[in-house]
Amino acid sequence: MISWLSPSELETALRDIGGRRYHSLHPFHGMLHGGKLNRDQVRAWALNRYYYQAMIPVKDAMILTRMNDASLRRIWRQRIVDHDGTSEGDGGLERWLQLTDSLGFPRDYVISNAGLLPATRFAVEAYVNFVRDRPLLEAIASSLTELFSPNIISERVAGMLKSYDFVSRETLAYFDGRLSQASRDADFALEYVKHNATTPQLQQSVLDALTFKCDVLWSLLDAIHHAYVSPGLPPPGAWIPGAELRS
Amino acid sequence: MISWLSPSELETALRDIGGRRYHSLHPFHGMLHGGKLNRDQVRAWALNRYYYQAMIPVKDAMILTRMNDASLRRIWRQRIVDHDGTSEGDGGLERWLQLTDSLGFPRDYVISNAGLLPATRFAVEAYVNFVRDRPLLEAIASSLTELFSPNIISERVAGMLKSYDFVSRETLAYFDGRLSQASRDADFALEYVKHNATTPQLQQSVLDALTFKCDVLWSLLDAIHHAYVSPGLPPPGAWIPGAELRS
């Protein structure tokens, strides 16, 4: 068990977890933005990552169910608006589907999750279950990977635009909105956590929650890397190039 | 949706899933029993697989909570007895710990799950959640991977004994009991499923449950293979050789 940390020491400890465990350190991230992947490997990433995106508003709705304070819910619900948009054809999820469109996937196939890696499903469901089952403080703390996402988004967009002729500023539009949204969301969650993690036990639980979430994101890249890059062994039933046209 | 199958056609369809998706087809299995792994890779397997073993009686207890028929529960509870034993030092879980003992792991370390791959945790938890959340028929059907386990156990024990000087008949004692237990358990579950899956919808749900369970087992080997064999990239915080002595 850690000893009590001041709020700013807690922030330092949280940022240190990101510095050691955030998926920007995963070899797949380097390959993705460094132009080392072929188009089908980028497609596998976009397809599997869709399921994570699709469950984010479900995860945030789950967090809303844990909040019995209208002022908190008013702030948190903005995350759902960001992902789901205000009308058909709007929102972050739609923009992710524009990316999978541009990579040649039929929408029905993407939305069906038919070709998803089972490990993607298990990791994302672990995240949704975590925010359902753990105390609200931990559920909020698990969102703090967004503290580290502006950097990874900038690297990813710049690198992908430079490296791949099959992506464009337009097809990567998802990330434009996320830069400002993630900073705003992370600032709020960080202040909440610093204010409410008032004992060493609660502070440890907050650090553990962020570690857990880093594990989720890392596992997603592990699964994609294993199935489609090295050694490149998709499990039975998972998407292989062309499967999206036969289903 | 499938059309209605006779009970024996349903059995054939279930066995066909095993023939295509059971983890005996995973490259890691071939390497394990073919003597292609080094001791640390076998250790990684035993360590991660412990968590699966440890959650099996929890999974079976969850299934008991879904059964409102004493005669069914009397049969199913034997699975918990087999894993937990009738006294300290007895049972399948204890025998698995004798395997991890013989591979040089402190018991406390194994039981703590401190070095577990996150993907192992997520897959095993997905299995426990499945039997909690799905209809009893599907929960029982998900156990049907045991139909295929006598073959894999025979291959594994014979191959490991032949290939590795660091395992012995005694340290593999876990598998001795499982040969007869798995056949008995699978026979019962198969008859239950054949008798109760009386519509095409229920039959499809049973086939899907077995597919799901094959995905769980395959994911476990994927995660171990990725972290410790190829490319060999353990995620941050996961066991690396020696970590069990420093914790």
From TrEMBL, chains A, B:
<protein>
    <recommendedName>
        <fullName>Pyrroloquinoline-quinone synthase</fullName>
        <ecNumber>1.3.3.11</ecNumber>
    </recommendedName>
</protein>
<comment type="similarity">
    <text>Belongs to the PqqC family.</text>
</comment>
<comment type="pathway">
    <text>Cofactor biosynthesis; pyrroloquinoline quinone biosynthesis.</text>
</comment>
<keyword id="KW-0884">PQQ biosynthesis</keyword>
<dbReference type="InterPro" id="IPR016084">
    <property type="entry name" value="Haem_Oase-like_multi-hlx"/>
</dbReference>
<dbReference type="InterPro" id="IPR011845">
    <property type="entry name" value="PqqC"/>
</dbReference>
<dbReference type="InterPro" id="IPR004305">
    <property type="entry name" value="Thiaminase-2/PQQC"/>
</dbReference>
<dbReference type="Pfam" id="PF03070">
    <property type="entry name" value="TENA_THI-4"/>
</dbReference>
<keyword id="KW-0560">Oxidoreductase</keyword>
<dbReference type="InterPro" id="IPR039068">
    <property type="entry name" value="PqqC-like"/>
</dbReference>
<feature type="domain" description="Thiaminase-2/PQQC">
    <location>
        <begin position="13"/>
        <end position="222"/>
    </location>
</feature>
<comment type="function">
    <text>Ring cyclization and eight-electron oxidation of 3a-(2-amino-2-carboxyethyl)-4,5-dioxo-4,5,6,7,8,9-hexahydroquinoline-7,9-dicarboxylic-acid to PQQ.</text>
</comment>
